[in-house]
Specification:
Helix content is 47%, strand content 23%. It has 875 residues and is α+β, with helices and mostly antiparallel strands. It has five domains: 9-107; 167-376, Beta-Lactamase (2-Layer Sandwich), CATH 3.30.450.40; 377-484, Beta-Lactamase; 502-606, PAS domain (Beta-Lactamase); 639-874, Phosphatase 2c, domain 1, CATH 3.60.40.10. The strands form seven sheets. A six-stranded antiparallel β-sheet has the order 5-4-3-8-7-6. Strands 20, 21, 22, 23, 26 and 27 form a six-stranded antiparallel β-sheet that branches.
């Protein structure tokens, strides 16, 4: 249905004006025709005659067409006018339609700006302006949704922060946090667990769920149940598929009613686990926003729990300090009272001392005489009372034992002898009580004040009935020198016996060359019986020429410089009727008597077999080292060169530092038609075992990448995992090896400015505009044995859009696990991030030099414990 066009008064005026113009043009045409006819019919002699006009028409019929010119003009102008009116109406309709659309778009835009969510009107999306408005509407709605999410998270954090500020007790705080969070995120059940670092156990401290108090106090080990698994992985667990036999999985809060989904979040601060928080929901799924909120809140709760535990320990220490202070104050008061009592007693003693001073002066001379006699006696005289306590000891104790008499009479006399001697003395006391008339003699060792152990001999008598003694009297003398003489005699006898039965050649020769002793082995090397050479000068004995030269040369050197020496000689001998050679190693030991060189002891040991074995070991080691060096050349030849990587990435570096000659860590690089593949790979072990695994990983990864260049890196890791297990026969029953490898694998597209990342226990760091983004790899390795109750998931592929100036870093754990620094701590991933953030403007070559120098400084004398590999790429 056509829309009626409303006529404006100006339209009617333009129509009248157009009609008048048509009439004027028609009349002008008619006037032109009349003038033309008159001109053609005009005769100068006769003037205008009608007959001439008729003749002219008869002679030229085309004149009739000229006379119809006004009609033509009228028809043409009339048709042109209608066409113009039609075009004008069309333009007007288009303008009105455009105006209407603009008004609708303006209304749509006003509704969007006022916060409404209007639906697009018909035909709106057919125009670019409408599409742009719709896109703006979608962006505004998305931003408002994000603002609502951020507001929701912020309000939740504020609510929990208030709870954390209010409560200082862990149990109360844990319950209030569960209660508040449960209502805020619509959870029906909740539990909180704390991690005890000493016992490595996870203990339940709070529950939020109907009648779930009976589950309080549950404990789990690391890796035990969902709670233990969350603690082991230090990552959240979100389960939506709850099996019917879920009761076999210890989650800590499930009871009679099975939830639809559960969420476990680790509470981590400073890379240390503080606890686990768990919630159950009746809804089939929970929003990702709830998971994000719980992850962000986890660190806040963990930090608060950590601070509370520190505060609890601080309060305990302060309480102990307060109690000790109170005790000290009480002791101070007691000491003050005692001091007052002592002052009073001292006054009384001063009075008594004044009376005794006179008597002391009289007895002093007699005591001085007795003291001199006792001090210079060759024995120590001591008296023990009936309770076996030392009550007197003579002054000679200081010269013989090194202790002053006052130091002995302190009850520590028995502490300076061994337990057996102490028991023997106490038994002697008991025997003397039963038989007072006898005298008992004991020998025992004693420790002097200077720490020297000496030997004492004591004779003990019972004089308890003697009023002047009233105790057991000891007469003790030092027998150390006689004991030493006895010991030397025993040692000489024992040495004689050992020498006679020894397989070594033993000679004792005086400084003048007189042979004092020769054991039977001498005959094996000289052919002369020991009895024929003892007590004879060296010149009269026919020894082997090599032995004779050794003995003479050594006597000359040791006599001039009496020190121990070691010499080796080769002696020709006849063995089984065949001539041969034996290598003898001599220990030359100077022997002194009264600090003067008396004799020289020669002890010769046959080391022929040891030398042969040593030579074989050297040959074997050289062959092994040659093999390892050749293996290093082979490994170096197959690994990508730094030049090939820099050709693809001019701004890049490879920091490669094997622990041994060959390495279990290796860089890997492959170029395909559409992308570059690069990886930092860490095989189990280092040295030869690690290098063997590196060959397996290198060639398998090459084959997989060439055949599957279009696959994502996570799928490539899955295929590599299967191939490694197949190659190492880990996919069979009872496999013999658990070896595998960790890696960080990147795929950089040549045209899309995008990187794909997948990791096995290894991360990727992205440094962009002074900020670091950490992309963690999966918590599993390539290869190894699959846990029968823990099915493996596929490796995750992470896609990141690259910008100009971005810098990527991947590395193995040999860098972060290295012990060093002033405290012998790990290098740690935190140090790597800190160094990148401190120097965001460095080039890749500068990063290489910086990490190389810092790692060398960190080692600072510590041994390198693993291979080190770090790769950096700049875009």
């Amino acid at each position: 249905m056509k829309k009626a066009i409303r006529k404006h008064p100006s339209d009617r005026y333009r129509a009248l004006l157009a009609s008048r113009n048509i009439m004027l043009y028609t009349l002008a045409g008619l006037l032109l025709v009349v003038v033309a006819m008159i001109s053609l019919s005009w005769n100068p002699g006769t003037g205008f005659r009608f007959e001439t006009l008729v003749q002219l028409h008869q002679a030229h019929p085309a004149i009739f067409l000229l006379e119809a010119l006004p009609v033509y003009i009228w028809i043409i102008l009339r048709v042109a006018r209608k066409n113009l009116q039609k075009t004008e109406r069309s333009y007007r309709l288009e303008v009105e339609k455009t105006t209407e659309i603009l008004e609708k778009n303006s209304g749509y835009a006003r509704a969007v700006s006022e916060g409404d969510d209007p639906a697009p009107f018909d035909g709106m999306l057919d125009t670019e302006l409408g599409q742009a408005l719709k896109l703006i509407h979608l962006n505004i709605r998305s931003n408002r949704r994000k603002e609502r999410e951020i507001t929701w998270i912020t309000e939740g954090k504020d609510m929990i922060s208030r709870v954390l500020r209010i409560h200082n007790e862990i149990d109360t705080l844990s319950y209030q946090v569960l209660k508040s969070l449960g209502k805020y995120i619509d959870a029906v059940q909740g539990a909180m667990y704390l991690f005890d670092e000493e016992t490595q156990r996870i203990r339940n401290v709070a529950l939020y769920a109907y009648n779930r108090r009976k589950y309080a106090g549950q404990e789990f080990g690391i890796g035990e149940g969902l709670v233990g698994q969350c603690a082991y992985e230090m990552d959240y667990i979100y389960r939506t598929e709850i099996p019917d036999d879920y009761i076999t999985i210890t989650s800590g809060i499930l009871g009679d009613r099975k939830p639809s989904c559960i969420l476990l979040v680790p509470l981590i601060t400073n890379d240390q686990l503080q606890g686990i928080i768990e919630f159950a929901f009746l809804e089939p799924r929970i929003p990702k926003l709830t998971i994000q909120f719980m992850l962000e809140l986890g660190e806040i709760i963990a930090r608060t729990l950590f601070n509370l535990q520190v505060n609890m320990k601080t309060r305990m220490l302060l309480e102990e300090s307060r109690k000790m202070t109170a005790e000290l104050q009480q002791n101070e008061l007691l000491m003050k009272r005692n001091a007052e009592e002592m002052q009073s007693t001292q006054q009384q003693l001063q009075n008594a001392n004044a009376q005794l001073q006179k008597k002391i002066g009289e007895e002093k001379l007699a005591q001085d005489r007795l003291h001199w006699l006792l001090e210079n006696a060759s024995e120590v005289i001591s008296i023990y009372d009936k309770d076996y306590q030392l009550k007197y000891i003579s002054p000679s104790v200081e010269r013989i034992l090194g202790y002053r008499p006052g130091e002995m009479v302190t009850g520590k006399d028995f502490e300076r002898i061994d337990q057996k001697s102490s028991n023997d003395i106490r038994k002697a006391f008991e025997l003397l009580i039963e038989a007072p008339a006898q005298t008992i003699r004991l020998e025992y060792s004693y420790i002097r004040k200077d720490g020297k152990r000496i030997f004492l001999s004591s004779s003990i008598r019972n004089l308890l009935n003697d009023p002047s003694v009233n105790g057991f009297i000891f007469n003790t003398r030092d027998i150390t020198e006689s004991k030493q003489v006895e010991k030397e005699q025993r040692l000489k006898s024992r040495m004689q016996s050992l020498s006679e039965n020894s397989l070594d050649l033993i000679l004792r020769i005086s400084t003048s060359g007189m042979i004092y002793y020769a054991n039977p082995v001498v005959e094996d090397y000289s052919g002369v019986a020991p009895s024929r050479i003892v007590n004879k000068p060296l010149e009269e004995v026919t020894f082997n020429k090599a032995i004779t030269e050794l003995l003479k040369d050594t006597l000359h050197k040791v006599t001039g410089n009496p020190q121990k020496m070691n010499r080796e000689i080769t002696i020709p001998v006849a063995i089984g009727g065949r001539s041969g050679e034996r290598i003898i190693h001599f220990n030359i030991i100077p022997e002194f008597q009264d600090q003067e060189l008396e004799t020289i002891l020669f002890v010769g040991h046959d080391i022929t077999e040891a030398k042969r074995i040593e030579k074989e070991i050297k040959i074997t080691n050289r062959k092994m080292q040659d093999s390892i060096n050749y293996a290093e050349r082979i490994q170096s030849s197959i690994l990508p060169s730094t030049q090939s990587i820099r050709k693809a990435f001019p701004e890049s570096f490879v920091f490669y530092m094997p622990r041994d000659v060959i390495s279990g860590d290796f860089p890997w690089f492959v170029e395909t038609k559409d992308a570059y593949f690069i990886a930092a790979i860490d095989c189990t072990g280092h040295g030869v075992p690690g290098a063997l695994l590196s060959f397996i990983g290198f060639f398998l990864l090459n084959n997989i990448t060439v055949l599957n260049a279009g696959k994502k890196v996570g799928e490539i890791c899955d295929e590599l995992n299967r191939e490694v297990r197949r190659t190492l026969k880990q996919d069979r029953k009872d496999p013999e090896t658990r070896d595998g490898m960790d890696l960080a694998l990147c795929k950089i597209y040549k045209k899309k400015e995008k990187v794909e990342f997948a990791g096995a226990h290894r991360p990727m760091y992205l440094l962009r505009e002074g900020e670091i983004s950490v992309y963690k790899g999966d918590r599993r390795s390539i290869g190894g044995i699959v846990h029968p109750r823990r099915p493996e998931k596929d490796f995750t592929t992470v896609e990141v859009q690259l910008r100009k100036g971005d810098q990527l870093f991947i590395f193995t754990d040999g860098l972060t696990d290295q012990l060093g620094g002033p405290d012998g701590l790990k290098y740690a991933a935190a140090r790597v991030r800190e160094m990148l953030l401190q120097h965001p403007g460095m080039t890749m070559e500068q990063y290489h030099d910086h990490f190389r120098d810092d790692f060398a400084s960190w080692l600072s004398g510590h041994p390198q414990i693993d291979d080190v590999l770090m790769i950096g790429l700049g875009f």
